[in-house]
Structure formats: structure tokens, C-alpha cells
């Protein structure tokens, strides 16, 4: 495949010609920027995602990567002359625009927001992205069912050029299963649960030892530690803990399968042999310790 020329890139109107050329060189020979803008990048912190944290600022590119056969958001720093952040555009991305200059979407383990320096660049990038997402959805229509995201972006207002989180409304009583089982000690509508679960749930609600376990270990590990004590509740909770936490991770799994099972390696058993799990894990191997063992 021939290299991408500068004429095929779309630069930012806020940058000088030399600055745009520098960004194009950082992209590499087989990547094309479909839209370029000057932005601030904000991310939320898990697990509650209730506030924005400024991650970085620089030049954002919507990149078509011909080698990896996908689209990416890539944020570049001109002074450091390097990429400082990257995120793949997945098929079911719900790209929102709560303000003309502010775009949000669900990223890996957080919510991401772009605060654009110029509204025109925000509009151009969003229109091109939505066109590409629509084309990807048409190609993969009927193959997969999208999961509902667990989090919504926190409400924001702009004050003196900064993103400020608005306080969320007070929580309402609900029998929605994730809230019931993830926060069992604050759930009040016990009478609305199935009769078979009410007694066990009340025992858990006033179990001081279980409260300490949840506080110290978090709800995921906490449930694992008390699953033998509350087997009926564990039966309801277990499917919630093993499900995919975001649409991004689902799409990441699909992309990993495509990368692993090539025409030359189409008979690999990537599930039983651990290839897929190794490709998706966030655990960093201790190479030094492994070499000492052998």
C-alpha cells in the first residue's frame, strides 16, 4: 500500500502549516487524519464516574489506520512531538455532543470528553465520525447485539473556560438488580424482592462482618468471600459480576479475535489455549521474575 501524502490529510485551521505538517509526520506513512482539532481531553475516574479530570491537551486527530484496519482517536502534543493518548473507535460507540464544543463517549473504564477550541472543528470531526460509524454498522448489521453502557457522562457546565461537574440528583429507590446486589447495605425496598430472597437479604443487610468485608475488599471480591454464606443471593449476583463492564471491552474482544485468527492461523483454539485472555488482560507480566524461574 502506498504511503499517505500530506494532501490527503485534513489539518486544523488553528495550526500553522508547519505545525500541521509535524502532526502528519507523527501519524506515520500508512495513517490518514480525517479530521484534526485543538482540544482539551477530560476523563472520569472509576468506579462512580461522577467528576471530570483533565487528562491532557493538544491536537486531536480522527485517524484511519490502514495497517491496523481501524479508526482511532489520537491526541498529539506538539511540544513533546509525540502521541499522548489513543482510543479505538468501536462499532457501537455512542458519540454525544451535549454542547457544540463538547463531545463525550464511553471509553475503556471511563467516560471521555473533548473540549474543542473551535466549534467548527468540533462539527467537522463529529460529522465525519458519525458517517464512519454508520458505515461500520451497516457492514456488521445483524452480527452482534450491543450492550447497554453502565455509565452516562456526568452533567457539566462551562465556567471561565473550564468543565465543572453539576451535582447529581439524589438517588431514587429502585429494585434494579445491579444497585440491589452491588450496594446491598443501603437498599431499602427489600419487600419488593422475591420471597425466596428476602430472608437471606435481610440477614446480609445487618451482617456487620459482611459490611467490613465489602468496605475493605470492594463489592466484587466481597461477594466472592461471602458466596457460601448467602448462596441464593450469590446465584443472582454472579452473572452481574462476570458480564462485560462496557461496550468498549466487547468490541475490543471482537477486534482481538480478528487479529488472532488470520488466514494462516485459522485453526488456533484461542479460548482454551489462553491466547484471547492473554490479549485482553491488563496484567503486566514480570519478565524479570519469569526469566529467573527458568
From TrEMBL:
WH1 domain residues are 26-136
Give the transmembrane ranges. none
- One short Pfam name that applies is WH1
Q: Which PROSITE patterns match?
A: WH1
Q: By its UniProt entry, which SUPFAM superfamilies does this protein fall under? A: PH domain-like (SSF50729)
* Name of the protein this chain belongs to: WH1 domain-containing protein
| Source organism | Timema cristinae
Lineage, opening ranks: Eukaryota, Metazoa, Ecdysozoa, Arthropoda, Hexapoda
